Each structure stands twice: as structure tokens, then as C-alpha cells.
């Protein structure tokens, strides 16, 4: 890659928005523009009277995204920061109604609100389409944050309770029970315990450990709120160019600050006695200590004791040492980021991998903690690999390859610029949240943290010796903490037994009468929480004007040749393509956006090859994808490259490269390269050689398959992944492209593949060549070129010059786009009566998909009504929220569609009892259909408003907008389909909604018209199986240890596919 300074050209536009020096008593602390994207301005103000801090950034997006971050230091594992996060949403002083915040958000062109709790902070979020809705909800949100009700009833349902069966419940408890015994959580908690003393809050599990949550009292949460939720401890971050910062500050001055004053909290920037969390507390005076190498072992539950995890940690740099922090990030990438990086070559790209992945990352704490995580380590190597790993780091000190280091630096600089195009809001927010916790009050650290160009220019001048010295100082000579994560079948059995013992102990403690009283307490709490919001309050918040949304413009064009159409676009981009004059035997769409990069995506739909079984060829897909960029290649000019040289040159000449399935469609295999604009022809040449000129080396295929197999156990510990894999496998035929990527398929295929590769390498290679032949049929290829198309001198003819010569074919032979509904198996075409129940030893919660037939076309006449119906049911604090989450039956529950497959499903996420969550949802739907529950006009109006946000969020960046244009083309939809679909929901009535609920959603809850996949903890399996059998389902019980059918389960097999994504098709 030729050196590219990320300083943009002088012509780069500034946002042109006036930044006020003062507004009310908000005074400007610092303002700047990003060095690498000067069109993005950033400014920070602070209220003189209250200390409230506000940061605004002017990135281009139709969304206004807000983040209110509270520094939430705590010195125990009670989970008060996390439980308080949940209780904030249950009502406030001015709006004492559970759900009113999200109802108003939905009316404000948002899709509800959200929050997260980290070790250092709790951050509340809301994103709206346009300024009007954001300024409308902002005062309501602040009233909830500063003055929540925190009721006893809210604690019962949202935090913790014991139900009438003696089972633990509550939304927070359910969430944490699904996390606490995961390998990563257990190892990170042990790391915190080992590095920090009790006087340092970074030792704490702020989410709450289950045992601590059982003891927690609501009064303790109220006390924590009084200590931490004060204006001087809050930073509000708002991103989005469509929001004027003056309007933001005026709204806060007029509608938020008066309430703070009235509550006696206007005590200046730093009130007397205020101790700034982390910076002035005992945390600051008790930093992490690691004076010598230490090793600790932690067991995690896993029935198959084959692979574990390793985590090595070092104490890093102070918060304001931005140069060394960046240098350590770059070193971590140099060591691990590709197949030719030093650690990958030694431990991963070998016949018997010692792990499947190595990553480096640094925390944002002060000082930072540098961590390297090694995934899927064979148990036999858990205790020996750390020493070999440390030795490899020591060897790297004197062996820094400066050519490769320069490649890593150049790619990183470009990726900083790219992040402003793909994810500006989150990128900026992460920096500002960290500064709010650790940064100096005068804004100097914030300003310094934005000077990324300056830092990279310093690193550009470093020698191999300087890089080696940093590696030596922080990771080779420095003491390391090693955490060994070891799988334990005995622990899995213990957790199962303990879960049953807790229930039995509760039954013995409370007795039948006591349990009934506990259940009554839950029901009374639900009733109190669900008191209706007076309609007149909701009507005070009018729905904004959809015309106020600033959509991102994408101009599209088609290549001449097989992609040409009579109705081709009439715009400057099409004129530019036509002027190039090339007639291509490929279907190419060009999507023009204001970008510094060009990305080419080649979408492939595998075709059958005479003489080969289609399902057998599709089964090769996981190994094909894993090995794609690590095979030898013969370039078009005859130059032969081994795999290491292929990777080196790709790293040097591209910003990113990938190949995967399910993007943009479930049956598609998509190859993508992203390059700077001057590398357009280089990218085309690489795409051609990678697709057609690679050599299927048996050695490389073996390494890829071995790595993939070694990574499977960690996937099997993820309950959400397991339930999704089982669902997709149930519904699809084996000939489906993405069924090969299904976790359940890979687990069976990979061992057999390795045996066959060893016995018949030539036959396997012949199969791969046949698979490639079917995959690269030009009649089934669709290409997207997105970026600054007008800057390309040869947008079309470059394909004729650089891509493998393809014989022209008649336009009529262009193969249609393949959709997943075409490869549905019997249960996908007609779901009925089947439940697959997987026992997962590492989890205690349940994850489930309940599936029925749905519309299979984006233009189906019922789709507008069904879209609104789902929005009504799924909205935060709406029906499913109240009946399921509000009752403590699950952390999440929703009705979703897979339009491409023609299915609709009810998803349950982190539930203590997925059967109870299913029955509650069924009862809800029955009450709606029967008329016992009504859907009022305000609910419908709010749901329609939230759809404006959903539409804008899918086009929230220039890249997302371009992707939407291309996907719509593949589906045969207009380029602006999202906005057309939004307009189609405008006149939907309550009658329309009830009709489609009865027609499409009610069948999800009837055994004759639905199927289900469930992943649960082992202790819950028998009860779940019995309960679903009572509902009329045939239940097949499975665990990953089964080699055949489990005793007592039904015989037979099922087929299916996995899309790899849970994004809904709209």
C-alpha cells in the first residue's frame, strides 16, 4: 500500500454549523474538528450552575443519537449500577408510569431507549430520526435519569423475585444467570480479582453476581442513585449533523436545568465535598499491582472437556499516554491481525493449532490493562502454551519486520478514516465516555485524544528498535497475569444439581402457602407497574414531521451489457458509466456516495455442477471460506505466490477483505475488497485471481479445517447460537448454501472431512474445483461497486481489462437471484408439531425460536399491516414487554419476520423458563384476537412513528445507504423501498392489525402450525420437554454429547440451514 496521509484535502467541507461560545449558563470548554475528518466538528460545554457536561459532534446521518453517561463507581458485586439502569425506565417524578419514556420515544421517531452498564459507567441511549423528536424526548429522559421512582414493585419484577414454583426470577437476575458461568465472564472476573484490591472499584462485577442479587434490597439501589446520579457526574453526548447545538443547549437550559435547580442540585461544577469517582476516590490511590508473574486457573462448565481458553494480562499505560496507547494497539495488530502475523504463523497456521484465534486489546481504564486472549486451546496445552506464548513475544522484540509494520500502520490510518464513514457515532462516543471518566476537566485530554494524525506521524518515524522497546517494556519484561480457563464436566453437573437444590430449598423454606404469597406479590407488583398512562400525557408529545428527516442520497447506475435495462437510471453517475462505453458480461451496479474508498462486493449464488452431488459440494463451504485468502495463487501474469505472499500483498494493497454468507441474502456468498480510490483496478485484478486462480493445497485445507473444528466447542457454549442453529437446520434442505455453515452441520462434517482429506486428497481437491466452478458461474454473479464512482476514470472498462476473461452470454441467461424460501425443507414449508430441545451445560437460561409460516414477499399485501402489528407488539413497554419481560419471564421477547424464508417467529432470549414465556405470549395473542385486550389509537400512532426510526437506521451512514440500494436491486425493489414501505403503513388501522395478528401471528402459538428450537440449561430439560409435549408437540431432546438419539427422545433427523445473522427482513 502506498503511504497515504489521513489528512484530508483542503476542499473537505466543514459542517458549517455555528458553535455557540455560551448558551444560558452553558459555557464552551473546548471545540475542535477531527484531524482525520475535519468536516466533523466536536464541541464540549459545561453548565456553570450544575456541572452538567454536553458534547456534540456533527457527523453526517439522518439519525440524532444521544448518550447520557454516568460514572458509576462501586466497590461490591451487588449489581446496583446494573439494577438501577433497569429501574430508571420504570417511571419518574413528573412521569410516574412504567413505560412512558419508551412510549414517548416511539412517538419521537425513535425505537424506544436503551442503556448499558460497564465496570466504570452506565450510559443511557436514544436515537431519533431528525432533531424534532430528540429535543422532545430529552427532558423526559433526564427526568427519568435524575428523578426515577425506584419502587418496590419495580424491584420485584425487574430485579429479583422467587415465584410460586420456588424458582428465581426477575429481568436482571435472568440476564445475569445467562452470563455468570460463561468462560469469558468467569475469566474476566478472576482477572479483576487478581489485579485490583477491594479499595479499587475496578474489582467489582457491576452487573451483579447471582448470589449478591438474591440479597440486594431496593433501599441500597436508592442510596446508590443519590450518590452517583447527580448533574456534575453526567456527560450528555449527542451526535448527528441534523441537530443544531444551539437548539440542544437551549432545550437543556429551558427544560432540564430548572428541575435541577428546584431539587437543590445546582451546586456548581464541583460541589463542596464531591469526590470524583475513580479519579479522586480510593480507586486512584490503589492502582493495579502485578510485581511478578502469576497464574490462576478457573473452571467453567462444559460437558466435553476438550478445549479451554487463555488470557494473559499486563498493566499498561496512563489514560493520557495517547502515544504509547496507540503504539500498543498497533503492536497487537502487527502480532495477530492476519495469517502471516508472527503469532498466527506460530500458533494458528500450523498442522496442529495451539489455538484458533489470538487477540490483543487494552481497556480504557487508568492505567490500561493490556490483554491477550487465546481461544479454543486444547486442554493438553493449557498449562504449557503460556510459556511458549511469552517466548514468542520475546523473540518478536528483535525481529520486527518494518515492511509489515508500515503496512499495519497504513491500514490502521485508513481504518480510522473509514470508521467516520461506517460508525462515526459509536467511535466518537467511546472516546468521549472514556474522557468523561478519566479526562481532565478543562477538556485538554479530550482535545489531545482527537489528534490521531499527529500520533500516527510520530509512529511513522519509529525504527524497529523503538517498536521492539515498547513491546519489551510492556509485555516481555513486565510481569504477566495468566488466567487459564479450563472446561469441567463436574462443574456442569454441579451447576445442574445446584439449580435444582435451590428450588427445593425455597420450597422447603416457604412451603406451599409461602410460595403462593410470593407469586401473589409478583402479580401485585405487575399490576402496580402496569397502571395505564393517561392518554392526555402522551398527546402532549406530537409525532414529528417525517419531512424533517435528512436522508442520505445515493446515486445508482448499471454497467452496459447484461445489467443494462430499459429503465436505467438517468443521472450523472449513469452518464459517467455510459461514457466509459464497456459492455460487460457481468451484472454490475454502481452506488455513488461521498467516500474516500471504493468497496467491491461480488455476490455469488452457487450453481449445480454435472456429475457432483449438490449437497456434498455445498458441505465444503466452511473450509472453502476459511481457506479462501490463505491459498497459493497464480496471478494473471503467471507469477506464482505462496499463501504468505498472498496475505502480505492483500494487506499492503487493501483496506479490508472478507468472504462470508448471508450478506446481503441468506443463500449468497459475498466476496468484498475495500481499497483507496487509486487502487480500484488493483482490487478487480485481485478479485479475479482469488476467485479463479487459487490452488487448493491439501495442506492449507487441512489447517483451515482443523482450526474450524477446534473452534466449535466455544460456539456450543452459546445458548443463543445453539437455538438459532437448531431453528435454521430444522427448516431448510441440505442443498441450501448456508446450511453448510450451520454449527450443527459443521460439527458433524469437519471430522469426516479431515479423515477423507487424509485418505483421498486428490478426490477432495477435485470436489473443491467443482465447487468453485459452480460458485463462479458468471450468469449467477451480481457485483456492487460503491464509493466515489465519479472519480474513477474507467469504472466499467477496468473490468474487461482486469477480470478473468469471461465469455459473453445472452442477457436472457442471467440466473435469477436465489432466495432462501427456494430451499425450505418440509418443516420450513409447513411448520408443525416439532420441538428440538438442546441441553447446553454452560447456561442456566433458555433461548428459543417458535416458528410459523409468514409472508414471503416484501410486496405481500399484508406486509404493511404486519409491520405495524409487530411494531405494536414489540415496542418497549408495549404488550410483549409487559407480558414477558415485565413479568420477569425473559430478558427479551419479540415477534420477527424472515421474509426471505417466508417465516415469522417468536423469539425468547435469556428466560428462566421458556415454556412460561411461550404460554404468556400465547395468552396475550388470544386476548388481543378475542377483544379482551384493545389496541388503542395512541399505541398504533407511536408504533408507526417508531417505524420512521427503523427505516432511517438502515440508511444511517453513507455505507448503509449504499448497501440498502444494492439489496433492494437484488430483491427487485425500488431503490427507495424503505421509504415507500414506511409510507404504506400510514393508513393501517386497528382492524388491519388484529386481522394479521390472527392470520399470521396466532399460528406461532398452535402446535399444528408451528415448530420450535430451544436451548436450555441441563437442569431444565425434563420439565420443558414435558410441558411442550402437553401442548401437542413432539419433543426431540438432544445434547452435543449425543452420538445418536438420546435415550427416550424421538428418532429421526431434521435438516436446515443457518443464516448467520438475526437481522430481520423487512
UniProtKB/TrEMBL annotation:
Keywords: Hydrolase, Metalloprotease, Protease. The keyword Secreted does not apply. Signal peptide: none annotated. Residues 1049-1059 have a biased composition (Low complexity). SUPFAM superfamilies: LuxS/MPP-like metallohydrolase. GO terms for biological process: proteolysis. Residues 216-399 form the Peptidase M16 C-terminal domain. The keyword Nucleus does not apply. It holds the Pfam family Peptidase_M16_C. Residues 1037-1066 are annotated as: Disordered. One of its GO terms (molecular function) is metallopeptidase activity. This is BY PROTMAP: gi|472587165|gb|EMS24664.1| zinc metalloprotease [Rhodosporidium toruloides NP11] gi|647394648|emb|CDR35881.1| RHTO0S01e09296g1_1 [Rhodosporidium toruloides].
